[in-house]
Amino acid sequence: xxxxxxxxxxxxxxxxxxxxxxxxxxxxDIERAAKFAEDCHKDQKRKSGExxxxxxxxxxxxxxxxxxxxxxxxxxxxxxxxxxxxxxKEQLAELxxxxxxxxxxxxxxxxALQFKGKNDPEYQAANHRKLFIAMARDVRVILVKLAxxxxxxxxxxxxxxxxxxxxxxxxxxxxxxxxHRLGISAIKNELxxxxxxxxxxxxxxxxxxxxxxxxxxRDASVQKMISEISEMLAEHHIEYRIFGRSKHLYSIYHKxxxxxxxxxxxxxxxxxxIVTKTELNCYxxxxxxxxxxxxxxxxxxxxxxxxxxxxxQSLHTTIIGDEGKIFEVQIxxxxxxxxxxxxxxxxxxxxxxxxxxxxxxQKEIEERLSWLSDFAALTDENADATASExxxxxxxxVFDVNVYVMTPKGRVIDLPNGATPIDFAYRIHxxxxxxxxxxxxxxxxxxxxTELHTGDVVSIxxxxxxxxxxxxLKFVKTNQARNKIRAYLTRKEAERKEExxxxxxxxxxxxxxxxxxxxxxxMDKKKLExxxxxxxxxxxxxxxxxxxxxxxxxxxxxxxxxxxxxxxQETDVxxxxxxxxxxxxxxxxxxxxxxxxxxxxxxxANCCLPVYGDEIIGYVTKGVGVxxxxxxxxxxxxxxxxxxxxHWEDEDSERMYDSDLTILAHDRSFLLTDVVxxxxxxxxxxxxxxxxxxxxxxxxxxxxxxxxxxLEQLVNIMANLRRTEGVMNVERVSH
Length: 735
Ligand code: MN
Prior knowledge:
Strand content: 5-15%
Bound molecules: manganese (II) ion
Shape: elongated
Distance between the termini: 89 Å
């Protein structure tokens, strides 16, 4: 077993605390917290059979050995009361102050993070570490959590085999790296060896035996070197402590497996540490050692001048001793040594008497450990990364990506600042994004543009058959979501267009057949191309699209296509008028003339609202004169007996015609404004406008009445409207 059994009593906690705490007030606070914890947990037992509170004492004891402040020890004693008993955060705050309550609450939240084994496809240890750090805004929370985990690992033998595997894996992947980042190597090494023992007992024992076998020989060499160096330092009157070091088992295993080193290679290195009084002593000592022993070039590292990112400071050198034996030598001061063991905890060892300010301490910690709040920047591999690499990583991983949210199953999703449930949805799956209709964040329904925060638990409501809204593009933060939404909308638009083109082709085929022509003969690309320009279009797609949306009249197309002229074409009339009566103007209200008839009352039909340039026909009413319809108006079908030819007279730029349009569009904000703008850009007066929103399909229908001079202007307006963001269809209306 990597750890000796121990049972910590409250006395042990107090003995340890009294080593650095003298204030009777502080000690009384700790005692009060211990009493309260004992009461709360009085009916609970650990799996080992011990009273539960023993775990609380043990956690507090570990914290006290790191010389943390009294508040942190109190939090250590109370760390499980919110989770395991009926005590609320408010109660804790009342009894022990806001600070202690906050630490305990954060520890509880982090404990609630679900973590699954490596076999889980959603396993992301790196993200768990990030989430852990992001949630622990106060470094004391991490210290308590690490102490908690250390004691749980020390007592892991009482758990089921399955729990042992899961907890050990989590410790190795999440907790040990965090301890390493904080420079708390004492805890890191112990967590690693304990995990190693449970995860790979065979290897653990194999390496333990190999180490044991070499021990005597190594000890002899190290002792010899120690006495040589001691003698030398004494001559120079340098105060020092010197001792041999042994690597912990997991680090040997790690070097063998990851760095592919043989056991002998690792164990050939003998390690010695010298701890002196001052920084100057460190450099002096290094100088004397290099003067006496041959250093291996390139192995000198000055971490005093340039500390590691976890604050570690020391001089490292590798020298060749007697019989060619190689020694790794570390030289550092007492303070540096404490930091090397207990990292962040050592650096901010609680000093009684000096006024303690938690906020100031946290601020100082964050300044010194600038990565702490930006933990994500540091992967374990780049501990020795250069400053520029470090900054680049920080920029990429932290400032761009620093919101960590979770699925209800505990999968951690990292998102950029300001990300929304839609960004989240697209990270889960494209289909989840496409069909998202609602979001639940921390059990409450929220709008899809809500900003997410670290620690939020997010789930997405989807509805089959729905699609993304163009509006989403205004608030999504990830490129992934933006690109997927755009791709979807473009694809839909193309599909819709394709459908319309097919519809247009069918309209024309039907019209040809109806008029007794063989469609095959005329539905020919070349023949069709010849007449595009006459309808203000330039390609097949637009031509058929306009046919489907009734912008182009199929009757007119058939006539042009088959050269089957009606008795009087509007163009013919105009040509004739220009030729024969160039100056004559008919000042009619409608702009329509009926050949041979001059005194008849002529009005435009309200149902189809013809505009100048439309293919038109007259309908002789009983008593109200001639109503002029568009040729394709449904209301005159089968009324052939009453129909007479009518023609547009010379164009009059003053005359205006009403026209009704219906627009179908994806619902979005400012839709109506943009539609109205599209019309007003063409200078056409807008007479009426109304909008209906269909909540179920997230679309809107807009009805417009506008005034135009002629068909050409109307076609331009319709084209302008079609280009408006979100618009799916624009049609002229026949009532
Ligand atoms: Mn606990």
